[in-house]
Specification:
Length: 481
Amino acid sequence: MDVILAGFNIDREALRELEDGSAPAGSRPTPETVSAAYARISRNPRPVNELRRIASGDVEKARRSNRNIVFDMGHSSIAEHAVFNIDILGVSRLAVEFIEGFRLASYTEKSQRYIRLDGDFVVSAEIRDAGLADLFIETVNAQNALYRKLLEAVLDLPASDGTGEPPSFIESAAKEDARYILSLATESQLGMTANARTLELMIRRAAAHPLAEVREFGQRLYDAVRETAPSLIRYTDATNFDRDTPDALKETLTTPPGTERSTDSDSVVLVHATPDGDNMILASLMQRVSGRPLVNCLDEVRRLSPAERESLMKTACSRMESYDAPLREFETADLVFEVVISASCFAQMKRHRMATIISRDYDPALGATVPETIINVGMEKPFRAMIERTNGVYERLRDDAPGAAAYILTNAHRRRVIVKMNVRELYHVSRLREDRHAQWDIRHTARRMVELGRNVMPLSLMFAGGKDTFQEMKRDRLEEK
């Protein structure tokens, strides 16, 4: 594993001094002076560019100011003005799920959909300590060998079934679907951009994580940034809250774990929606232009005829293009789904971080998702046989290295996920994930979420759909009487 500080923001004047050689001897660039300068804006009448110049001229004073304001006074948002770019290499897909679980950061990850993988994977310390490394390595190597066979089988698809798809499509489908048999131990890499406040939280949460790999990541991340911004990243030790709460809940809630298997018909369930959601959004739109109390607008909307409510919603959306987000009033109605999805699908769902995404552990009892192309090329039997073999190894790992058992599971294995999002966020998911260019697994999930949402909020989700069909759909909706 490597965690490398690739870059960070620094004051322009400091950058200029570095470029022309006028920087004081021994000085090192840091984003801390920008944070210190911005912290002073609220109480100092000087122009902000002058505050930056003052802070840049005395780094140690800027650091003392940061410590006082961020930690003693508790104004943590000041740390958000320091931004870091981080290279992360040699981490497992399982660890990536932890890393990418932080909302206020940006990630670009090596995609298993577009790159043919070479079989690199992580063997965790827990598995080695349990004496199960040989079994684990043997199983992952078998998964990787089947991955290569699946690749070749799907690449031969045009000759075998006469579909006549272009080679680029077949190659993409091969890599996209063969990866379902790869383990969550498969190595990945990513670039991450995050502010100092998020990095501190990430380091602290990593320190409390049950996986040694994640704890190592947190320590390496801290080592990469601490000398550059010591005044902004301070509280990095695990807290009792982060470390002990999950186990305390398990002890308190004695309900036995469920073993219900998932089926395609119940893989997406709408658990809760804002009551009267359509009217709530319409009332918020009315309040935007009337300035009247929202409760009065809601009463008036309820008195409108169905045709009048539909007309109002069409007015709010008719000028929208595929790249436009609905108005912010669409955030006033929420939907809560429970989805049972594969690891491949979750890898994409988790990127919608403005939603609330709460995932449970992977559970072999929920079954595995088998890509249709794997079935079409006659490889379903070896695929399912490998899943069964994997499940057996998972049970062995769960007995002797329970925290690390999930490493052996594949991209096909499923988990339960709670997804809460407002209507505006669901529009974003729909535009991106219902589009024909989207990966089929999450496309099916997004489509079902929109269908269920539309059942309870037909007006608000009238214009939801993929980018590729948006213009045609909008025309049809506006022409409906």
